[in-house]
Amino acid sequence: MQRFENKVVVVTGASRGIGGSIAVAFAKEGATVIGVARSSQDDVAADAGKNYHAISFDLGDASADALAPLVAGIIAKFKKIDVLINNAGIIRRAPAVEFSQKDWDDVLRINLTSPFFLTQAVAKWWLGAGRAAAGADDRLRIINIASLLSFQGGITVPAYAASKHGIAGLTKALANEWSSQRINVNAVAPGYVETENTRALREDPARNQAILSRIPQGAWARPDDIAGACLYLASGDANYVNGAILNVDGGWLAR
Questions:
Q1: Which one of 3, 15, 169, 203 has the fewest CB atoms closer than 10 angstroms to its CB?
Q2: What is d(CA 213, CA 195) in angstroms, rounded to the nearest whole number?
Q3: Distance between alpha carbon 140 and the CA centroid of its chain, in Å?
Q4: How open is the CA angle 155-150-171, to the nearest 5 degrees?
Q5: What is the spatial distance between Cα 58 and Cα 148, in angstroms, rounded to a whole number?
Q6: How far is the C-alpha of 237 from the C-alpha of 76, rounded, in Å?
């Protein structure tokens, strides 16, 4: 299937893990995919094929003033943005009484501040020239990558939990403002996924077993499991889905 032929999809944090899988999934369904990441995207580009375009950009150093030109440059080259997936994120682990301000600021900036201002820049374009040039049935799709820690506190990850609670709230707030403007803002909340961010948990035998025993499906998710949820939210099947947070967690939150 080529459900996203002639669509332009921007994925942040696309160099590996969940972001890389999302980027490849959209490219294989015909989308023109623009990956935004600070690390090399060569492996993802090889898997995605000719529809993939990499932009080297550090969202950790980006200000609101830097994100608007990034969006403008993408639109100038590719004419539009149909889907924005705010996936880039980091995690820092330390007890709350020892958590440094630098770690706090780094996590909140990458996980929450940059997604907001990137989304703001794309929405400004859509509410102006973008929507006017689009077809009557076209929509702008914003998909944020939330987390189980949008609902729970976790252990020794206070900044990450705060940022992901913020992403959940931001998703709802923007949907309230923009849903009448043919903008769908939703989020996917992954469970425990086999990525670099969770390596420390998987390599700790006690923590790994504790996590697996809580997951009804009895296994860690793969990055591809998250990509499928993003494909759904970006499709016409989700036209009436707005402000939702879709849990993809193997049943974790149901337990």
A1: 203
A2: 19
A3: 15
A4: 155
A5: 25
A6: 29
Q: What is the pLDDT of residues 204-248, one digit of tens each?
A: 999 999 999 999 999 999 999 999 999 999 999 999 999 999 999
Q: Where are the domains positioned within the chain?
A: 8-254
pLDDT in tens, 41-92: 999 999 999 999 999 999 998 888 999 999 999 999 999 999 999 999 999 9
Q: How far apart are CA 183 and CA 119, in angstroms?
A: 11
Measured over the CA atoms of residue 3, residue 134, residue 68 and residue 158, the dihedral's sign is negative
Note the pTM of the prediction, 2 decimals.
Answer: 0.96
Distance of alpha carbon 233 from alpha carbon 187, whole angstroms: 8
Q: Which of 160, 192, 232, 240 is catalytic?
A: 160
Instruction: Give pLDDT tens digits for 145-185.
Output: 999 999 999 999 999 999 999 999 999 999 999 999 999 99
Would you state the structure tokens that stand for residue 20, as one six-digit string? 């890389």
Compute the radius of gyration of the chain from its Cα atoms: 18
Annotation says 160 is catalytic: yes
More confident residue, 185 or 199: 185
b (16+ CB within 10 A) / e for 7-28: bbbbbbbbbbbbbbbbbbbbbb
Q: Is 79 exposed, middle or buried (0-12, 13-18, 19+ CB in 10 A)?
A: exposed
Given the candidates 3.40.50.2300, 3.40.50.150, 3.40.50.720, 2.40.50.140, the CATH classification of the domain at 8-254 is 3.40.50.720
